[in-house]
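Hello,

Following up on my earlier ticket. Below are the three sequence lines again, exactly as submitted.
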Amino acid sequence: MAVEKEDLGLSLSLSFPQNYNSLQLNLMPSLVPSSVISQKPSWNDTFHSSDPNSDSCRADTRSFLRGIDVNRLPSTADCEEEAGVSSPNSTISSVSGKRSEREGNGEEHEMERDCSRGISDEEDGDTSRKKLRLSKDQSAILEESFKEHNTLNPKQKLALAKQLGLRPRQVEVWFQNRRARTKLKQTEVDCEFLKRCCENLTEENRRLQKEVQELRALKLPTVLHANDPTYHPHHVPFM
DNA sequence: GGGAGTGCCCGTTTTACGTCA
DNA sequence: TATGACGTAAAACGGGCACTC
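Thanks for your patience. The regenerated structure is below:
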C-alpha cells in the first residue's frame, strides 16, 4: 500500500468529560479537517489565474481542455478507440465521452505522450484496463500536493501530471480517491468521538443515578413523614 | 427556462499485492 | 518452495448533482 493509514497523519486528542471543547481532530499535518477541506488552497498562488472558480480560469480551461480523452493511453490508445475497442467495463460513450470532451487539449496530449509508464502498460496488446501502481516517489509528491491543497484547478493538475509523468486524469482520480479516504478517515474519527461521548455520558448517568439513590436514602424518613398525616415528631410508634 | 460543458462526489468495479494454509 | 484462495488497498469507472455560461 502506497499510503498507510498512519501516513494520513491522523491524531485524535480527547479529553472527557471535563472539557469537551478540548477535542482536537487533526487529520493531516497541514490539512485541517472538515471545515477547511473545501477551502481553496493557497497553492493556487503558484499558478496565476489559479482560482478554479474564476471565470477566466473556467473559460480558459474549457477552451483549453477539449477533444482528447485523457483516459486513453498514449499511442496505442488511439488505435483502440478507433477500432471500437475499450476496456471491458467501459463503453465508448462512458469515460471517453464524459471526460474526453472536457479534458482534451494539446498540452495534455503532448504530455501524455511522455507518459512512459502508460505506454508500456498498454503496449503489451492487452485491451483490459491495466491499473497503474504509482511509485513511492509519485505517491509522495501527490501527498505533498494534497497537503497543500486537496483540490486542483486544471493548471495545477496539468503541472502535477507533467511533473509525475502521469495523465491528468490519473492525477484527478488520485485526488478524488484521496479526498474520499480523508473523508472516510474523518468519519471514523467522528464515530470514535461520538462513541467516547456516549460512553462518558453513560458513565455520568450511572454516577448521577447512584448519587440520587444515596440522597433519597438519606432523606427518605423526612419525605415519608412529611406525607404521613399521622406522623408526630415526638410520637414513638409501636414496634 | 433549458441545454451544454465542467468539476466533484459517491458507490462500485477491477486490479495489484500481501498473507496464509 | 510453489501455488492457489482470500482479503485489502487503491486505481479506475460511471452516474448524478450543482454550477456556470
